[in-house]
Amino acid sequence: MLLCFTIFCFLIESWAQNSTVAPGGMRQLKVALMMPVNMSDASVESNIGFYRSAGAVTIALERIQLENLLPNTNFTFVWYFDECVGSLGSGYTVEAAYVDKADVLIGPACPTPVIYSGTVAAFYNFPIFIWGTIMPSDINDGTRFPTLASTSVTTLSITLTLMEFLIRFQWNEFAFIYAIRRSDLIPKCSYLASDIDNAVTNEDNMTMTYKRNIANDSYEILKEKLVGLKKLARIILVCFESLSDRRTFMMAMSELGMITDDYLVVFIETDRTGFFPSGGGMWVDRNVPPDGKDDIALKAFENAIILDLQPYNLSFDTFNQEVIANIEKWPFYCVGCIDKSLNASSRAPNLADTFYLYASSLNKTIAQYGESAKNDGTTISNMAKGEYN
Ligand SMILES: *[C@@H]1O[C@H](CO)[C@@H](O)[C@H](O)[C@H]1NC(C)=O
Ligand SMILES: *[C@@H]1O[C@H](CO)[C@@H](O)[C@H](O)[C@H]1NC(C)=O
Ligand SMILES: *[C@@H]1O[C@H](CO)[C@@H](O)[C@H](O)[C@H]1NC(C)=O
Ligand SMILES: *[C@@H]1O[C@H](CO)[C@@H](O)[C@H](O)[C@H]1NC(C)=O
Ligand SMILES: *[C@@H]1O[C@H](CO)[C@@H](O)[C@H](O)[C@H]1NC(C)=O
Ligand SMILES: *[C@@H]1O[C@H](CO)[C@@H](O)[C@H](O)[C@H]1NC(C)=O
Ligand SMILES: *[C@@H]1O[C@H](CO)[C@@H](O)[C@H](O)[C@H]1NC(C)=O
Ligand SMILES: *[C@@H]1O[C@H](CO)[C@@H](O)[C@H](O)[C@H]1NC(C)=O
Asked: Which keywords label this protein (predicted)?
């Protein structure tokens, strides 16, 4: 009962513990959102920025109401901008749980504040449902983060999949090439690189024969390194954060005559778009003017495998427009805050899923344990486990 601050809550506890509808009127749910806003780093904005994401909450709320998941509930929202900073994440989590007496925290959306917020939330037994970019495997630790539930993929599930995949085909040796380009506020390949190291240590029959961050390599150096790699590995795992790196790498392979059945390049992706990141295939040159070698690149990509997450099951165009339009409406009322020609952020669907997941978990929690469990973070986050579609 640590989080039952209000008299309302005590009344429910003593009078109607297992009822599904709050007595004496509507159930009040205050939802706290946390994400970055107005970041100078464009990649943070396009992945999880507030103005391009927050509207997804309203879309999820419509579905929650349509499915009657939490009938007779009055939702209110507060939001905090953590700017991907750990201290802001922990501070605002205290504010949400203790000062503003929110019922749940939806966010943060970047890895550093997630660790801090998750720790604070554990202290208050405060439910925290995170979304956003790829998360470090630490958050899978249910002892450290008992009140945390996530719809973000962690690097742990990716490396487990990778190892399973390599073992399935009895590939015991591989090279790992990566390039870190993204802001370290929302890392991808650096987490993956360290998790792959750990995974290899834990697999008796698996060896990483070569590893290199090629972010600072010129094209000539890259080719030189590939010549060296040729003798060491035939399975090449790659993790890239920019589109041009993907194509450049395959072009270098092609120039070195490595597009044969002897080599396989495995792209580790998390954008749910497979070979077709927004606006065209991976093999397409986006430079102006283009180099005219797209057919060679396409041929090279035929020798690659992409390991990616399942695409979102939604109609993107409508979703995009609604997310952008919703920021002007309740509860945000932020008129003119965003250039309307922009698309929703890439993780906005993830935010919608997360809020829906919370509603669904709370529904199950109240049905099983009564209204008094409304703020029991550990129970609610346990209820989040399961399959959804
Ligand atoms: C973000 O930037 C816009 C435009 O400069 C400004 O109107 C808005 O108040 C800023 N939002 C926050 C939360 O700082
Ligand atoms: C849970 O959802 C169902 C509809 O799916 C609804 O009938 C029920 O009242 C909900 N329970 C609670 C506790 O809100
Ligand atoms: C919901 O709660 C807010 C804040 O307490 C209040 O202003 C609003 O009137 C309530 N709405 C309904 C439908 O009860
Ligand atoms: C390791 O993998 C190789 C190739 O698949 C196989 O021949 C060997 O038996 C495996 N060793 C162990 C200890 O599993
Ligand atoms: C790449 O270059 C940048 C800027 O010179 C430097 O900060 C960074 O440490 C370099 N990275 C690697 C992997 O060498
Ligand atoms: C989304 O999922 C539902 C249920 O699994 C399925 O019926 C529908 O065809 C899917 N839609 C798309 C666009 O994949
Ligand atoms: C928005 O998304 C669509 C479809 O993915 C794409 O064609 C368009 O270029 C995007 N617009 C912007 C401004 O990025
Ligand atoms: C509420 O439900 C839980 C689980 O179904 C049960 O253990 C508990 O005794 C119930 N409490 C009341 C007051 O009925």
From this structure: Membrane, Signal, Transmembrane, Transmembrane helix
